[in-house]
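Re: the 284-residue chain
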Amino acid sequence: MKVNTALCFVGAGISLRLLAYTRSPLKARIVNGLTIAIALTALLTICQYVFGWNLGIDELIFKDLGSPATSYPGRMGVNTAVNFGLTGAALWLLNLQDYPSDRLRQRPPSRPQHRVRVDTIAIAQSLALIVGAIALQAVVGYAYNVRVFYQFTMLTTSMALHTAVGFVVLAVGMLALRSDRVWMRSLTANLMGGDIARRFIPTTIVLPLLVGWLILQGVNANLYDPNFALSLMSMSLVGIALGLIAKNADIINSIDDDRLRSNDRRRSSEERLKHALQGARQGT
C-alpha cells in the first residue's frame, strides 16, 4: 500500500467517524476539508497517469525504495485513485445532506423557482456501491489470478489486496451510515422482504465466488479440463439458485402458516365472544 493511499484511508475513516455520530458545524467543516483533500489527491494522481505528469506528490513524505510492481514509485493505482475520488464525493454528499452551505441556507429566494430535487443520499450510496464493486473485483482478481482485475496495465500500479479489502469495508460503512434511506431502506426494514434480503445477500455473494475458486484450483491441479470445469460451475450455480429459492419458499411458507394460524385463532375468539353475548342476551 502506498503512503498516499494510507493517508487517504485515514482521512476517509475520520470523516466516516465524524459523520456517524453527533455533528456540529466545526465537524462538518473538518469533513469537508478531508473529503476535498481525498478527492483532490485522487484527481491529481489520475492526471499524472493521463498526461504523463510528475507533480511530486507520490513520494512527498517517504521515498519508495523497492517497488517492482510499478513503473511509478510511490504512486497509487488508477483503480485506487478512482475509488478515492468516488469515496471523497460520496462522503462530501453525505455531509452536505445535514449541513448545506451557509450561503445557500441564509439567502432567501428572490422569486419562486421550479427545481428538480436531487437526492444526495441516493447519489452517495450509488457511488459507495461502485467503490465496493471495484474493490470486490480486485479481491476476485487476486483469488482467481486475473491481473487485469486489480492492475489495468503493466505500466500502472496495482491495487494491493489489503487496499481492496479496506475499500470493501469503507463502502459498507458509507452504505450503513444512512441505512434508512434509498437503496438500504429495503435491506434494513423490519419486514419480511428485509429479513429475506439480509439472509440471502451474503450467501449470494460469497458462495458462488468460493465455489468458482475451488473449481479453479482443480483446473490448476490438472484434475479435469476447462470444459468440465465450466459445466461444473454452471451446475453449481444452478444448485445454489435452487437452494436459495427453496430456502426462500420455506421462510415465506413459515410466515404464511403463522398468519393463517393467527387468523384461525382470531375467528375462534370472535365465535366464542358471539356465543357468550347471545347466552347472556347482551349486545354490542
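The two ends are 76 Å apart (CA to CA).
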